[in-house]
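Posting this for the archive.
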Amino acid sequence: MDGEQQNEGTTTPTQDQPAQGQGNTPAQVSNEGSNTDNPAGSLVDMGTGTDKVDKKDEEKSEETEHAGPEEAEGQGKDNEIVPETEKPPEEQPPSETGEQADTVEQGQAVVNDWGDEAKEEGTTDQGETENIVESHGEKPTEESTQEKGETEKQTEKSEEAEKEAEGKGEADKQEVDKEAEQNKEVDKQAEQEGEADNQAEPNGETDKPAETSGEGPVTSGQEEEGQAEEGVQGDGERGEGSGSQKGDEDLNAWGESREDLVETMDPLFYYNAEEHVSGAQVQEESGLPLDMLTLNHSYGYDCTKRANLHILDETTVCFVAGNLVELLNLTSKEQTYLRSTSGGGVGAIAVHPSRKFFAVAEKGKVPNINIYEYPSLKLHRILRGGTEQCYNYVDFSPDGELLASQGGESDYMLTVWRWRQEKIVLRSKAFSQEVFRATFSTELEGQLTTAGTSHIKFWKMADTFTGLKLQGQLGKFGRTEISDIEGYVELPDGKVLSGCEWGNLLVWDGGLIKVEISRKGGKSCHHGPVQQILLDEGELMTVGVDGFIRVWDFETIDTAEGVDEVGLFEMEPMNELQVEMDVKLKSIVKSVDTENEPTIWYAQDANGGIWKLDLSFSHTSLAPEKLMTYHAGPIWSADTSPVSHLVATTGQDSTVRVFDYVSRKQLCQSSFNSAGTSLTWVPEIVDPKGSTVVVGFGDGVVRVLTIASIHEHSLGHKGKDECEFVLRQAFKPHTGSVTSLAIDNNGEVLATGSEDGTVFFMTVGTTYEPVGFVKMPAAVRSIQWSPKKFKKSTLLIFCDGGCAVELAAPEQGTFDTAHTFQITGLDMKTFQFNSIKSYLRHEEDLARQAKEEEERKKREEEERKKRIERGLETESEAGDEEPESATPQQPPWEPYIPEEPSPILTGFYTDEGKFWLSMGGFDAGYLYECKFLSEEEKASMRKENIDKPLRAVSVIDSNDVPITQIKFSSKVDQVLMGMENGAVRIQQMDPESQEKDLGLMGPYWMLTIHDNNYGHITRLLTSHDDTYILTVGRDGNFFAFNMMGQEEIKERVAEAKARLPSARAIEEDKVVDDIDDPNAYSIEDAKQKAEHDKMIRQAEEKKKDVRRHIAKLRRDFKTLLEKNKTLPEHLQLHRGEFEMDREIKQELEKQIQDKIELMKKEMAWDSEKHRLALEKLQMKFKEVVECERIVVKSFNSPHEVATFRTAKLSDDFYDMKALFQRRKTMFLSGPSRDTTRELRTGQTKQTEGGQAVSDVQENADLKVKTSLKGSMGDRITQALLKVDEKKHQRAVRKAQWDELLASKPDDDYEDPADVAAIKEAKENMGDYKLKTAPDYVVPDHMRMNVEKARGRLLVIKDLIHQHKYDFNAQLLALRDRKISLLDVLRELVKELKEVQAELGPHKRLPLPHIPDLHPEEMPEKQLEYTRESLLEFKKAHEAKELAAKKGSNTGFGGFGGDGEATKPSSPAGTPKQGTSLSSLTKSDSNVISEQGPPTVADGEEELSDAERQIREAREIRLLYQRDQIVLKIKELKQHFDADLRLLRHDKFNLDIIMKNADLRHVTLFEELVLLKEFEKSEDVLAAKVESKEQEKLEMQAKVLDCQSKLENKKKDIERLQEKEKALHAAFLASLGDNNKFSDYLQKVFKKKIKRAKKKTTDADGSDEESDDESDDESDWDESDEESESETGGYDLDVCPSGCDQAIYDNTCQMREKKLDIEELLTEEKKASEVLKKELESLHKKSKIIDTGLQVAENNLEAFQLEKQQKINELDVVVTLKLHQIQYMVNGVLPQDLCNTLVFESSGVSRLQQRIKELQHEKSMQKRQMKESRRQHVQLLKDRKHMESRIRHMEEECNSTMMAKFGCIVDLEKLETITVNRNIEELKEKLRLAEITNSEEISDWIEKISAKKEEITGLIRENTRKLNQLCILTEEKKTLENSLDARQKHVGGEYSGVKKSEARERQRLIQLVQLQAQEIDALKEEITLLSRKGGHILPPAQPPMPQSASI
């Protein structure tokens, strides 16, 4: 691109086309010939200029609109400095020569996006630079110092050439122009032929403009010349004579091509991140490896940085840590690091809305914004040139297409990027002070907001007629105190809600503060600044530095208005969360949950931590959890353990922490009340275990801490730490901050230094004992003891003011410390540093100037030789040149000594009395060796030489950055340096010298680690084995690095040196620029581009010529018309004769008509817009009104009645009402029984009884069924029916008894309802509890909650609306009646007029007055209009405006300014304001009275008597009709007025009701607000009670279940015991009487034998079974022994002789049964014991649950009481009449009614009535008690009688059994013996089964025979396949033999035609033949169809290709 731009911008001066620019000298051609914006072609500089800036531009406000890059390329006027070609002459610089030098000196590196180098360009635009960089290429690199020097030299050379050209006359100028043309021709030929002199020096190309084309690499001379040109003409149009049109065209053409190129940027393009990421800086030719340090782990987090926590996915967050971006997995704690590309640090991070990308905005010189893809972490885009120093904030737009970046100090530039194309859209300076944030509006597209120090600003991306602009509006605080704005949020309607320093919220609307929001009682919303405000899912959340997160009602804030002049609005938050007491929140981010709506947030704690917060604000919300903990703020000190891989740190957050940097974890931490300022680990000589640290604090306290394991001292520790600090001793030796601690080499003395200017000495031992202190000249910054090799132990002390002190160590016991610890008399030497840096720099400048002068002369000599060789100059001319003028006399040099001495940052001893210093301030950049002088030495030296450093060593490439830490490795082969800019520098030392002499430093290795601005390294440490390097800094970061060993470094250096090429003359090689851009133009493309531009220019010139020609023709035509007018009329031509073609005029008229139609279409949008606006207004203000205020007036009185102006109830109201009704219905219809009571009062008994009854009923319903048929079956069925009937009767009786017994209550049972009633009567009898009483208990049905309060509000609102609606309906009906009545009255008046017309004048009555409807009675007509009324209004309005212009108040013809004609006409359908029907009727009556009835004329004959009687009769009738009409009119009016008065009275009563209802509504609303405040706590308590009750119910169910199981087990045990007894009785019966073996058989029966255990599937019980078996075996063995001794020699296992074998066998069988029963009984007993234990545990748990339930109920009751007390505080308005007040004092109503009690009259009556009811109930209860006692005595007597009767019947039954059976038998067993249904049925089933089985056997025999036949067929098939296998095996052998034979002729098949090719050729031949046949077939078909005469139609579908079918 460089070549192309130079080709376009530099024009070779020829005879046809002179050189561009004013001057014609070669220097001017070289420096001013370029018309492009800059040679690189990738920059468009908006506003760069010279030092002389337009004064108007300097006075521009900060709200100036800034143009986008499209207009900046030559057209922007609002934002750029006026080009010099457009400035007035007085503002033009006199020449470019002087300006060029200034510009180049003030130039800065401008990013060149299309190459690998940065050009230097002088830019001065109001103190700031705006470089729009459209990035598409490789990363720019900063110019090295050498390149800058060459640029300055080139500039000086250009100045000299320019001066030389100006010194000559015009003839010399022409000669120089001619020479320049010749030079260009020579250069052009050399380039075309490839014979350019590439070995020429850069100075040799001074007078030639570069003519390279295409993309060829530019030689160094051309490049430097381009840089020199850029210094003068870098801005294109700003140079003198460079403002031509060609420059504009070139710039526009290049801008368009760049835009096209940028827009087509590949979305899948990625940079190679390794090439861009900053790495270590290594000294050239040192060979040091770049990976000398490898990052092991990061233990820090810059938690005080704004918005330094972002979420990437569900488990990963990212934040800035020094020069890194750290990606932390919160689950696995795994860390991933991204280094900055600039090495200057990271300013801000932003995550894309899709979370697929995140932006990293860096810091440094012209930093970049890097866009990384996630999770691949590929470098996707690089945005360049957005600011000068650093970025403070970046933010993506909601759609993710734009990116806003906010620059930091110096320019504060706000830039909007289209980041996918790496293109700047807009940019502007945001403010003159620091800007904290810049964000897009989430709802309104194109709007941004910035906020910072003392300001907030609102931006809008406006599309103006000049293009896209960025317009800013500064927020005005007005009467509110100016504040810094940290947090804000854009609301959906355009308003902005921000915080302030004092914690309140500010609502901004239109750039002004609408209202300030605080909490009630004047409390601020937060204590301290509001750090962040979020609008998430309709919830407005604020995050404060006080650790609170509060949620506010969005609607309330959105509609808030100030209530006083201050504009303060008070409200309370809906919810709030305090994380912890000592938490300072900076920001929160929402977690990511792909399945559900996340409620988890992660918070950045400025006190050092990352928190996990649950912001669901429910009773199930999780407590805040601290995920990570870090140091907060600067880490002031650290030290490593001398024996292990541990490190201790302390810092500003008042904590001391210990880390294990091998296992990468924090072991423990401890907090104190002051910041930790210094720390040292006690050396191994003092504590061999390495477990003691000494820490100094900011309050002057020193603490001795020991690290111990947790279990050794605090077993109850609940934290996560593995160890803890144990305080061994604490003492306070200083009043100021302890800055340094040091223990001497012998471990005997501890020295502490402080800011109070003292050094304190302590003895080291079991306890630290004070020795004394010594005062220092200034505050102590650092102390260290002398090395062991020194003869005398001394202390080196560094103080403020550049003072160093050497102090001898004190000896304990030699100083008197009885009165004071101050020590005097110690040997002390001081050294006051004197600056020598200015001397050093002066010497370096002189050496550099001498070298530059020598090189300049050398270049001039070489240039002169070249010009002589080219024939441009002769030796005589060269010799005739005038000698150079002497350089101007410069003022004498004076050294600079800073007024304030530079501080000492660090230092160390080298030898006795000698030490090295690292200075800050002005003296940084060198290391100084100094020496303490004795008084004799000082006396012998000159004063100015005293305390001067002995020597100074320059720190190479340090840019004068101070060194804050210096540490040597253990082998003194490396020196480690910590820099103030956060870098670590490693200098190699001579390992053989073993001396700490910094003058022997070798090559350096440097890497930026901490933040470059505020992260200077406070401690630089190494591990005890030199394998780790640890750094801590002021930015709160803490890094651990793995350090490469010295042997490996040497090997790497040797390898690097081995790869170097052979030595050669490097100075003779020229540096060649490479073309790295793949899209760069080729030479031909560049040529074609230039030709295309030339064609465009020619086309533009041709257009201008045509326009000039048309203008000339117009002037000629106008002259002809004027001449035509001067001719006589008969000679003049008519205008139509000038028309050459009529159609042209018609075409023009058509165009005019089209424009009119177009205008109508254009105005259609405005018309529709206004129509929609009118509809919206009607919907907003008219449609919501249900009834306007309508006033109905009476006829004959001034009475009137107005409706209630009511609004329609919203749909939300009806929805809420319906929901409330549904909930109310559900509540009323829900279960009301007490399940607890059911469980307590024998629910299981009822269940069992019910089950028994149901079983009986089921048994009764069952029919006897049997499988037997015939007579046998019938007989058995009949017998069974009788047996079942008897069973049923017994079962029914048993069920009745069970039910009766189940209903029997316990002896101590009491009804809970009765107990509760008795308790309530005892507590409340005769006492009426008031709600205001302190012991008032709110009943459950009267407890208020938010739902009930809201329901009451809905009800009262509905009632108010219903009353108003009903009254309005009545009044509207009355109005409608009045309207119809007016029509009736008008008809009656008309009839009256007709009647009176026939009467005489003296008999006529005045017509009654008929009023018109008043406008207040028809207000809805006011908003109705028609087109005619609108047109009339328009005419009146225009007439009024016309009259106002003329200045007359009265108009002609009634159209004056105040006439009626100017008023708008009344709405259609209503009478006008000034007219009424009464006026018309009066005029009519006057007319009638004047005319009179028709009378008899004078000459007419008189009437007869009959006629006179007829007339009198008619007159009487007319008078009667007249009177009736008048009476009817009067009655109608009176009736209407009466109804109106009645309705008016109702209105008065309703007004009272409505006023009381409104007051009640207000009270209910206040109650609702109060209940909302208690809602959350009440829900929590109610949920606890409910959960406890649920637990109680579950526990009771478990208890009852366990009890039932236990009862069943008891029954089972009793049943087994009865079976055992029955078995034993049966055994005795089987023995018979007088059996001589009775004893033997009893022993056999009782013997325990070994029995086989039953197999169980439970594997867990195997051990228990084995134990049981062993126990049983032992028992059996014992029993065997006993049996042998007690049986008299009989074997119990063998039947003895003489004993009956059958009896013996029966005994053995019964023994087996007995053992089975005993085993079952044992198991049941074990199970019973288990159930008993379980029941006991359940009872204990039940008691615990009861206790918890009681506590929860008490808490809820106390809360309800507190809530009731708060509700009682609400004022309730009650309207009372005087007769209702019965509180009198001495018969007089008192003025103070505070002690009165408002009580309902019905309540008083009810209480009085209740007294009588209680008396009646008491007497009734007494009578009932007497009756119950009498009934009880009678029941006891009946019970005794029934018991005696039952005994008598049992005796009778038993006697009957004995008489019949001889014994008492069981009737059920007896019934089963008579008829055994089971046996008979089994026999029948056996018979049927035999028949079925025989049939199945026959079926299976048939199936077996079929399977045999199938097997035979399969065997035959298998035989056939075996034969086939044999055949295939033989063929295989044959093929193998042939294959073996062919291997001997391997290459033969390749000599001829391959078989595959032959086959393919044959296939193709067949294909061609087949296609030919198809062609012939088709031809025949075509011929056949054509012969038939039909037309050949195309086929419906195209024929398939033949290849597809093959």
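The CA atoms of residues 849 and 855 lie 10 Å apart. The first strand starts at residue 43 and ends at 45.
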